[in-house]
Design brief:
Rossmann fold; 2 domains; 13 strands; 6-stranded parallel β-sheet; binds uridine-diphosphate-N-acetylglucosamine; 45% helix
Length: 432
């Protein structure tokens, strides 16, 4: 997809700022009237922007919450809910547009009951530099005009770092949710995003105690760090009663082996890390391993767009063409929860899925050399098996023979992390 914000990609920030100004002015003029909010067309260079009035005296701290990619939506939903319930802040949701497909975006907003973003930057895809730069250019005038008291960023995607970099240079405080996780692998783009975002954050909310040690080692003052638990698990526990049984997915996409839930059960797999999917050799080896696993237990593979594109580009589609391997498009959150809960085990390179399987008590094999979420291994159901086919297959056999790791729920993964975050933010602004 082309970047929608063409003015940003060629560096013309003044044009963007002028347009933003005009939109905000229009919104401001309408304040107090009964007219509906102005929401410019989605295809406008600025994306669609709801009016954000410039307010002179502000009784309540204004928080800007930034999301960009699929896992961000899951993390921000319980935070929005807790902050709304606290009724102590003016909230502004900014969507960078890093993920934009209906299946990667719209369906998550609906399922998680997230409000429409107040501001959509529409940056779309691109190289790391293009994408990070586009978010920075687009969000700078928004931060200037709306003057938030604090910017909340979550996770480790490019949008997280980009928003934080602009905020810190504008002198706006930053809260980073999911701080301190480290894979110690600087070849991983997310590791760079994590380290840099933490360095410039004012409040750092952690999901596991090891994160505090990582931050201390990097010289971050303990007074800024708060162990609150895991908002990903808040979302999981909140949504689990509505999880869609796997039968529904199979009904829609399959016949043969998957026309009903296979007798011996099934496994699920996801793959999207650049290190696993961008290199054709690595991708071929993993897909061949999935073939071998499917021979032992039917396997469901929801395909991230990046992975689907790589499979097609490298002519690997025939590897997926077998009745006991079901490939499906990216699935809605509630379907993924049902699929993971119903699976005998999950293979993944996703960080969020390592946590969700621990939350669900389902064995997980992580197809990476490392994890930034060691609590899922020490407490949870996760095993980091790497990407060597023999090691993966041996781990699968062990799960089939023994049922796999049962794990236990890590400290504070109790569904109340977002409430704790809201409490700390209230304290930060001396509201309590
Ligand atoms: C991003 C995050 C990653 C996170 C993942 C969750 C970074 C560096 N990476 O990776 O940490 O685990 O999101 O999904 O921020 N695409 C579409 N439609 C979309 C979005 C993406 O087709 O809605 C395709 C595009 O071809 C794009 C590619 O996927 O180039 C990669 O998208 P991008 O957001 O750059 O990175 P992800 O691999 O999704």
């Amino acid at each position: 997809m082309l970047l929608r914000a063409d003015a940003r990609t060629n560096g013309d920030t003044s044009a963007v700022a002028a347009r933003m100004d005009a939109q905000l002015r229009r919104g401001h003029q309408r304040e107090g009237s009964n007219a509906p909010p102005i929401i410019p067309h989605r295809d406008s260079p600025l994306g669609w922007v709801a009016p954000v009035p410039r307010v002179k005296s502000r009784p309540r701290p204004r928080l800007m919450l930034v999301v960009g990619a699929r896992p961000n939506f899951i993390k921000i939903a319980p935070i929005m809910r807790a902050l709304r319930a606290a009724a102590a802040f003016d909230l502004m949701l900014v969507h960078t547009g890093q993920h934009y497909d209906a299946a990667m975006n719209d369906v998550f907003f609906a399922e998680l009951a997230l409000p429409d973003p107040d501001i959509h930057l529409g940056v779309g895809s691109g190289s790391h530099a293009v994408q990070t730069g586009a978010v920075m250019q687009a969000i700078e005038p928004v931060i200037e005009r709306t003057a938030p008291d604090l910017v909340v960023v979550v996770g480790d995607v490019n949008s997280t770092l980009a928003a934080a970099l602009v905020a810190v240079k504008k002198g706006v405080a930053i809260a980073h949710v999911e701080a301190g996780l480290r894979s110690f692998d600087r070849a991983m783009p997310e590791e760079i995003n994590r380290v840099l975002t933490d360095q410039i954050s004012d409040l750092l909310f952690t999901t596991e105690q090891g994160a505090e040690r990582n931050l201390a080692r990097e010289g971050i003052a303990a007074a800024k760090v708060f162990f609150v638990g895991n908002v990903m698990i808040d979302s999981l526990l909140h949504a689990l009663p509505r999880a869609v049984p796997p039968e529904r997915l199979f009904e829609r996409h399959a016949d043969g082996v998957f026309s009903r839930v296979p007798d011996g059960g099934f496994a699920a797999a996801t793959l999207h890390r650049p290190s696993n999917v961008d290199d054709p050799g690595a991708l071929r080896a993993l897909l061949s391993t999935f073939d071998a696993i499917a021979e032992r237990l039917p396997l469901v593979l929801p395909l991230h767009p990046r992975t689907a594109r790589a499979i097609e580009q490298h002519g690997l589609t025939p590897l997926l063409d077998r009745p006991d391997l079901l490939t499906v498009p990216p699935q809605p959150y509630l379907v993924m929860l049902g699929l993971m809960r119903g699976a005998r085990f999950v293979l993944t390179d996703s960080g969020g899925i390592q946590e969700e399987t621990t939350g669900l008590g389902v064995p997980c094999l992580t197809l990476r050399a490392n994890t930034e979420r060691p609590i899922t291994v020490s407490h949870g159901t996760n095993r980091v098996v790497g990407t060597e086919p023999g090691a993966i297959l041996a781990a699968v056999e062990e799960i089939l023979a023994t049922g796999g790791k049962r794990g236990r729920i890590p400290p504070l993964w109790d569904g109340r992390a977002a409430e704790r975050i809201a409490g700390h933010l209230a304290q930060h602004f001396k509201l309590v």
